[in-house]
Amino acid sequence: MRIDLITIFPNFFTGPFDHGVLRRAIQTGLVAVRTHDLRAFTHDRHRTVDDRPFGGGEGMVLKPEPIVDCFETLGIASKVTRDPGKETVILLSAQGLPFSQAMAHELASIERIAFICGRYEGVDERVNELLCDREISIGDYVLSGGELAAAVIVDAVVRLLPGVLGNPDSSRYESFGVDDTGDVHLPGEVPAATHGAGGLLDYPHYTRPAEFRGLEIPDVLAGGDHAAIRQWRRQRALEKTFRNRPDLLDRATLSNEDREFLASLS
Ligand code: SAM
To answer: Which alpha helices (DSSP H) does the chain contain, by range?
Structure first.
């Protein structure tokens, strides 16, 4: 995969991309990340990237010319000739579609992704019309720039690329994960996975020591009964989802047993 980040702060990404899974993916060549300084595509003495908004009002707006010039040098196909399965251009924006794990999975199948990081009041809307396939928000709050949002999306997408995580099941049996048969299930169909997958939040995890500051791990996890462990994990995932994100239960893949368990929770 190739990732291009268009920004006025190209050094911003040095920290987030220099650790753990992401760093390893870059070092092993599973992903190539390039940052592009928008100011390098200006033509005036002050390297101006922003201007006042038409219609008046607060703040400044990122100008369209440097962004379009930058794209022309990147060799990314124009919006009309672009193959959306191979290349996509994302505008980071608080007004965008909410980012999700399902979107991360979809983006992980694309060969090249370019991100336009807004600043100030945002980006001239014609950039969105001319260049962007998607406008994405990482949550219902306003950041001061798109760089953090881009870093969040890159992290979530790159860890899904084949070969990036040591164990591919790690990205399957986790919060918001899909089960073995994919996302779509007939009503009442029993999920293939018995824990932590199928659109639920993850179950709680424990490691050694078995007793810490008076708190013991649940007995079932040390008992070696794998069916009982699976059932415990499934029920804890259901419980967490019920308490913290009940909205997810509407879309989750639930068995009759799951439904009975949920009905027992108050
Ligand atoms: N005037 C904009 C609004 O009210 O929607 C906010 C602009 S914000 C201060 C500057 C830039 O930060 C945006 O252009 C966008 O690139 C980025 N940004 C802010 N919040 C974001 C979010 N929730 N998700 C993704 N990007 C965001």
So the answer is: 20-27, 64-74, 101-107, 125-131, 146-158, 226-244, 246-249, 256-264
Q: Which of 93, 121, 148 to mutate to test the pocket of ligand 1 (most atoms within 8 A of CB)?
A: 93
What pLDDT is stored for residue 167 in this prediction?
Answer: 80
78: which 2 tokens?
């124009």
The boundaries of every CATH 3.40.1280.10 domain in the chain are 2-158
Taking 70 as the threshold, does the pLDDT of residue 83 lie above it?
A: yes
Angle, CA of 201, 204 and 15, to the nearest 5°: 75
**How far apart are the C-alpha atoms of 184 and 206, rounded to whole Å?**
31
Radius of gyration of the chain, Cα coordinates, nearest whole angstrom: 22
Q: Is the pLDDT of residue 191 over 90?
A: no
Q: What's 2-158's CATH class?
A: alpha beta
- Indicate whether this model's pTM tops 0.85: yes
Task: Answer whether 146 contacts ligand 1 (Cβ < 6 A).
Answer: yes
Instruction: Say if residue 209 is preceded by a cis peptide, omega within 30 of 0.
Output: yes
Residue-wise pLDDT tens digits, 17-69: 999 999 999 999 999 999 999 999 999 999 999 999 999 999 999 999 999 99
- Domain boundaries 174-265, CATH class: mainly alpha
- In the chain, list all ranges with CATH 1.10.1270.20: 174-265
- CB of 123 closer than 6 angstroms to any ligand 1 atom: yes
User: Residue with the nearest Cα to atom 19 of ligand 1?
Assistant: 143
Q: Which ligand 1 atom lies nearest to the CA of residue 95?
A: 5
pLDDT 10s digits, 146-158: 999 999 999 999 9
